[in-house]
Design brief:
single chain, mainly beta, Immunoglobulin-like, four-stranded antiparallel β-sheet
């Protein structure tokens, strides 16, 4: 694949790649034509010799996310040159019926962070690829991973859409053409499980646990990353801050740290996210430890008492939230 700067930037949603979990509540559209807003379109349209297919699945680990994927298959006897931007899956639309008629209930192109209100941006990059006859192609630019709280809301920020099944339509921009591709059905709900102490991402297991230290009085949190698979796994992780912790007085806010806004305490300063490449061989574990003095957390404004910790693991293609236990802090 060749990459070169694009002539324009498209302000759309961010693209993130994550490990897939078991699909939940997803029903693919049947083969044949589907009527969308009065226009008959194929469930798997063929444009320029490429057959388009799209699907949505739920990644059921806090925060629950909707994962949309588009694949392109060359159905001709000749190699096809394709060009697309960093947001080739340009828009994902939700409808409340299989006809996908009327105004969409939600669309990814209008996303913004529900806590900060910031709009997502798309880098101005153009990708080029030769798709061989019979070859099926997908990439991170043809995927979207969207937290469910950005679609239906959350207890901490309010509801934006009712829970329930939605029918999805992907709008894909390839070779300067936009193609509508039905992406099946998925049920999105507002209720969220609490942050886990352990999670699997990209073939690695991430676990974290805290302990208090006495000299000096502080909190030490150790992140353990393990490859339980049979093949090596490569990641890029932040060099100076592979994991950071934040503290909350309220457990419910910690359990929804990804949408809870400012914690009661977080590290001061800015961590420059320069990434180091790391390879984990089969069965290998590595640990990353962060230590924070209690005096730095409590400062002059926070009371002694129990605090609930959240950890954020900084990877190149995603950030992972983990519950990091709770500790009693006293001066």
């Amino acid at each position: 694949m060749r990459i070169r700067p694009a002539g324009r930037a498209i302000l759309l949603s961010t693209l993130v790649v994550a490990a897939l979990a078991t699909a939940c509540g997803q029903t693919p559209d049947q083969a044949g034509d589907i009527v969308v807003n009065g226009t008959s379109i194929s469930a798997h349209p063929i444009v320029g010799g490429l057959r388009y297919a799209a699907e949505v699945n739920l990644v059921d680990q806090a925060p629950t996310r909707l994962h949309a994927t588009v694949t392109l298959t060359n159905v001709t006897d000749e190699t096809i040159h394709v060009e697309y931007g960093a947001c080739a899956l340009a828009n994902l639309l939700a409808f409340d019926g299989p006809a996908r008629s009327g105004e969409p209930k939600w669309e990814s192109a209008e996303r913004q962070d529900p806590v900060t209100g910031a709009q997502y941006a798309c880098p101005g990059i153009l990708y080029e690829r030769e798709v061989l006859p019979g070859e099926t192609h997908s990439s991170k630019e043809l995927q979207l991973l969207i937290p469910s709280y950005e679609i239906v809301g959350h207890d901490l920020i309010g509801r934006s859409l009712p829970d329930g099944p939605y029918y999805w339509l992907a709008q894909v921009e390839i070779n300067n053409e936009t193609t509508d591709v039905p992406a099946g059905q998925a049920t999105v709900k507002m209720n969220e499980p609490p942050l886990p102490r352990e999670r699997v991402a990209g073939g690695l297991v991430y676990q974290i646990g805290p302990r208090t230290t006495t000299t000096p009085l502080g909190i030490e949190a150790t992140l353990t990353v393990t490859n339980n698979g049979d093949e090596h796994v490569d990641i890029f992780i932040a060099r100076d801050c592979p994991v950071t912790i934040s503290a909350y007085r309220d457990k419910a806010r910690r359990d929804a740290a990804y949408v809870a806004g400012e914690p009661d305490w977080r590290p001061k300063g800015i961590c420059v996210l320069e990434m180091d490449a790391m390879r984990f061989s089969s069965g290998e574990s590595q640990q990353f430890t962060v230590t924070v003095p209690v005096a730095e957390i409590l400062g002059d404004s926070l009371d002694d008492g129990r605090y609930y910790l959240a950890a954020l693991v900084w990877l190149r293609d995603q950030s992972l939230w983990l519950a990091a236990g709770d500790v009693e802090l006293r001066r």
